[in-house]
Every structure is written in structure tokens, then in C-alpha cells.
Design goal:
The protein is α+β, with helices and mostly antiparallel strands. It has a domain of 237 residues. Helices cover 53% and strands 15% of the residues. Strand 3 and strand 4 form a beta hairpin.
Length: 495
């Protein structure tokens, strides 16, 4: 009598032979290579399913005798076999199992075969989950579903992919906590922190939110509702000494200096304000608490200068002061430049040579540490310039911005020490981590789903995807099967 697993392996052999014959016949008939490739891929998937089924069947059902001892109680083998659906990358399998418990109507206390195979909590294999979500962190759930179905012939629902995303993201925080600090020899000499905010389009809650505006929008009205994600980045970099003229050439004349240092061990995260265990946890607090942890871990002996580069948002600087001390705080030069252009357009036409000369001259002064002179000069020009009300308000906005941030604008010192003065890393993160995935056409998110996607996307962009997948498999096996060693010991005796 041929056993079930032997039958499955025989079917796999038959499928393999069919593939050989298919390739030989195609060669004889001159079939185009892409057609042969497609047929062989389908055959490989089918053969893989037979082989995986044979492997599972060869394990038996997990019958380890009429009773098992677990946590001080005797568990009985429940009558009959209990089938489980398992969706692998090769297709769907059915797995009959012996289970143990106190009675049929109660929770199954031990399922030896599940523990031996290391089955996940859901129906979907860990491999499939990893592949699914590697698509989902880059594309919409719907596009990802179609791509998986087109490549592997597996039909999955949008709901299953969204649920999988949230479940997988539950393990991200624990994964972060286990990650080792980069070895000192792989770090550079300056530790850099940078943060910014980026809106995520949210679904309206009929109970809490006002109805979406209809018709033509009025000034200040927005069609959608957004919630800000605080995006943070941490990295180390070598000093990059430049002159004021070097920076002017780079930002205004597009003459980039060669051999710019590359950030090392860059880590990105994004956090939404959300409710955790009945309490509101602010995204900014999460990011700046993480900053403090990174400073403790990556600058233990305090020998590295710690630089923070951000825009002029008061809330970000206030949060930084609460969590991290002894920082070198730097206003992002590109935001300062934006305000110089606003000032220029108070006096000269947009796009004019006069406006460009105005900005070039004052940017150079700011980079030379002469922000006080620039502020004083703007005040004098405003007084003498006979500006209209709107331009006076615009100039006042510029002056307030510079006054509020002048202590973060000691660019002559920053350049002499080789510190970064631009927040390009976090600006890029706002785009790559948040915007590119969260703001697709028609996309609207709930907080839990959005945070799950941001968590997983950060893991992916930090190049931690494979190590995270391995980590969560081990974590979930320990959580689901605390009795695994007992099962293996008993299995050897029964076998």
C-alpha cells in the first residue's frame, strides 16, 4: 500500500517528467521561449505543491498517544482529525492534525503537528506573508494582489492583505528593540538627527468629522482630511568642510562639490499620533524618544558631536529640548533660503535678476554668520521701501522666522566644523517613506492601518526586511508553541 506522502512525491516526479517532455517537445516544434518559460513556471508551482504536501504528509498527524502533560494538567487526545488550511507560495494545502485538550468544546491546548511544522497563526505561510507585504509596502494593496495573482496564480482578498499588514506590523517594535548598535568601526564621527512632518490622508469618521465639502472649494478649504506623521532619521557622517561660497554655488548655481560624504547606518521611522491602551501617544514624542535612545546607544562615550538639522517648526525644536540635551541645533539652510526668496519678492519681481542677486548676496552673508546684519538690512529696506500691506506682512513673516531661529543659524561655525546644514535625508524620507506610498490616487487610511504601513515601509527602506521576517518567525513560534521542546522529545519516543 502506497502511503499518502509517497503518493504526493510520485505526483511531483510525474510533474517533473512532464516538464522535461514539455521542454523537449517545444525544442522540436520551435516554440517561442517565453511560452516555454510560462509553462515551465506553472509546472514548477504545481510540482512544488505536490512536494510540500508530501513533506507535510510524511510528518503524520501529530498523534503522540492518548494523553499529554502540559502546564500541570493532563490533556486528552480529542476524537478525530482536525483539518487546517495552509496557503503556501505553491498553492493551498489541507493539513489533518491530532489535537489535545480537556474537552472538544474548549480551546485546543496542544497541536503537536502545528508546533513541529512551525505553522503561523494565520492560514498564510510566512514566506507568502513576506512576499505579499514586500509588494504591499511598495504598491497599493490592490496592485499587489494582482501582481501576486499574476505571478503565482494565488487569489487573495484585499481584506486578507490589509489584515496581514497590521498583524505583521505588531512585531516591528519588538524587532527594533533587538537590533544591535552598529559597531564603532562602521560608524562615522558625527551623529545626525533630523525630523519633519508629513500629512497622511485619512478616512473621515462620520461621528467625529464634519462632512466633506461639496462643490467648488472655498479659500482655506480642503477636500480631504490629513493627520501628520512625524518622520525621523538618524545617521552618522564624516565632516564635510566647506566655505560660504561653496554652499552658494551648490544651492543656487547647481555646482555640487565632489566627494560628498555618504550617510552611514541610516535609520528612518515615521509615527502618527494614535491611541495606545486607552491613552493618546503623540507621534513627535515617539520619534524624539527614539532620538534620545539612539544618542545613548550610538554615542555612549559622548565623543561624537550630535547634530540636529530641522526646519523652523517650533513644536519640533521644543520636543527636541525635552528629550535630548547637548545638541548642535541647525536650521535647515534650504528653509532659510525659501524665506530669503519671500523677502526678495517683497522688493523685486518674481524671477527677476534683481531678486536672484538679492538672494545670492544675503545667503552668502547668512552662511558667513552674519544673520544679524541680514535682519537689520531687511528692516531698513522695509522701512524705506514703501511696501503695500500684503508685502509688509510678508516681510514681517520673514523677519519673525529669522529672529526665532537665529540661534540655530551659526553657519560659519557649522561649515568650519564640517557639519551638515541641510535636512535632505528627512525631506527624502517624507517623500519615500510617506508620500510615495500613502498618497496614491484615492487612498484614505485609518490610523491603525496607516501606522502599520509606515512601520513596515520603514523596515523595508532600512534594508531590514529579510532579518525582520526571520525574527518574526522565531518570535511567533515561541509565542504560539511554548510546548515545542516537549513535543519534539515525545515525537522521538513515538517515532
Amino acid at each position: 500500500m502506497i502511503l499518502t506522502h509517497e503518493q504526493a512525491f510520485l505526483k511531483a516526479k510525474e510533474e517533473f517528467q512532464k516538464m522535461i517532455e514539455l521542454a523537449q517537445q517545444a525544442a522540436h516544434n520551435g516554440i517561442r521561449v517565453h511560452e516555454v518559460e510560462t509553462d515551465l513556471w506553472k509546472g514548477l508551482l504545481k510540482m512544488g505543491r505536490f512536494m510540500l504536501q508530501g513533506y507535510v504528509d510524511a510528518q503524520g498527524t501529530g498523534d503522540l498517544g492518548p494523553t499529554l502533560e502540559h502546564q500541570g494538567q493532563t490533556l486528552n487526545r480529542l476524537e478525530g482529525l482536525f483539518d487546517r488550511r495552509y496557503v503556501s507560495i505553491f498553492g493551498e494545502l489541507n493539513i489533518p492534525r491530532t489535537v489535545y485538550g480537556t474537552r472538544l468544546t474548549q480551546k485546543f491546548e496542544m497541536i503537536p503537528l502545528d508546533a513541529r511544522l512551525g505553522l503561523p497563526e494565520s492560514d498564510f505561510s510566512y514566506v507568502l506573508q513576506g512576499w505579499d507585504q514586500s509588494f504591499c509596502v511598495q504598491n497599493s494593496f490592490d496592485a499587489s494582489r494582482h501582481n501576486i495573482e499574476r505571478i503565482m496564480g494565488l487569489g487573495q482578498t484585499l481584506g486578507s492583505l490589509e489584515t496581514m499588514s497590521r498583524s505583521m506590523a505588531d512585531d516591528v517594535e519588538a524587532f527594533h528593540a533587538t537590533q544591535p548598535v552598529p559597531p564603532p568601526e562602521q560608524e562615522e564621527s558625527i551623529l545626525v538627527l533630523t525630523a519633519d512632518g508629513k500629512g497622511v490622508p485619512m478616512r473621515r469618521d462620520p461621528k467625529q468629522d464634519a462632512p466633506s465639502p461639496s462643490g467648488r472649494l472655498k479659500k482655506g478649504q480642503k477636500a480631504g482630511k490629513k493627520r501628520e506623521a512625524c518622520v525621523g532619521g538618524v545617521y552618522t557622517v564624516e565632516p564635510f568642510v566647506r566655505t560660504a561660497e561653496d554652499v552658494v554655488d551648490e544651492v543656487l548655481r547647481n555646482k555640487k562639490k565632489e566627494k560628498r560624504p555618504v550617510p552611514k547606518n541610516k535609520r528612518l521611522r515615521a509615527e502618527l499620533t494614535q491611541e495606545v491602551d486607552g491613552k493618546e501617544v503623540k507621534g513627535k514624542e515617539q520619534i524624539f524618544s527614539w532620538f534620545a535612545e539612539q544618542v545613548r546607544k550610538r554615542n555612549k562615550d559622548g565623543t561624537k558631536p550630535v547634530v540636529c538639522v530641522m526646519d523652523g517648526a517650533r513644536s519640533l525644536w521644543a520636543m527636541l529640548g525635552r528629550y535630548v540635551c547637548g545638541m548642535i541645533c541647525i536650521l535647515d539652510i534650504y528653509h532659510a533660503l525659501e524665506y530669503l526668496w519671500l523677502a526678495a519678492y517683497c522688493f523685486f519681481p518674481e524671477g527677476s535678476d534683481e531678486a536672484r542677486s538679492f538672494v545670492t548676496e544675503r545667503l552668502k552673508r547668512i552662511l558667513e554668520g552674519k544673520i544679524g546684519y541680514v535682519i537689520g538690512g531687511l528692516k531698513q529696506m522695509g522701512t524705506k521701501g514703501n511696501l503695500n500691506k500684503a508685502k509688509r506682512a510678508q516681510l514681517a513673516k520673514v523677519l519673525t522666522y529669522f529672529e526665532n531661529n537665529r540661534r540655530f543659524m551659526k553657519y560659519d561655525e557649522y561649515l568650519a566644523n564640517g557639519y551638515p546644514i541641510g535636512s535632505g535625508v528627512v525631506e527624502g524620507a517624507c517623500r519615500h517613506l510617506v508620500k510615495d506610498r500613502m498618497e496614491g490616487t484615492g487612498m484614505r487610511w485609518r490610523v491603525a492601518g496607516a501606522q502599520a504601513m509606515l512601520d513596515l515601509r520603514a523596515v523595508f527602506l532600512n534594508d531590514d526586511w529579510e532579518s525582520f521576517q526571520q525574527y518574526r518567525v522565531e518570535l511567533n513560534c515561541q509565542k504560539l508553541y511554548p510546548y515545542q521542546r516537549k513535543v519534539e522529545s515525545r515525537w522521538k519516543k513515538v517515532a
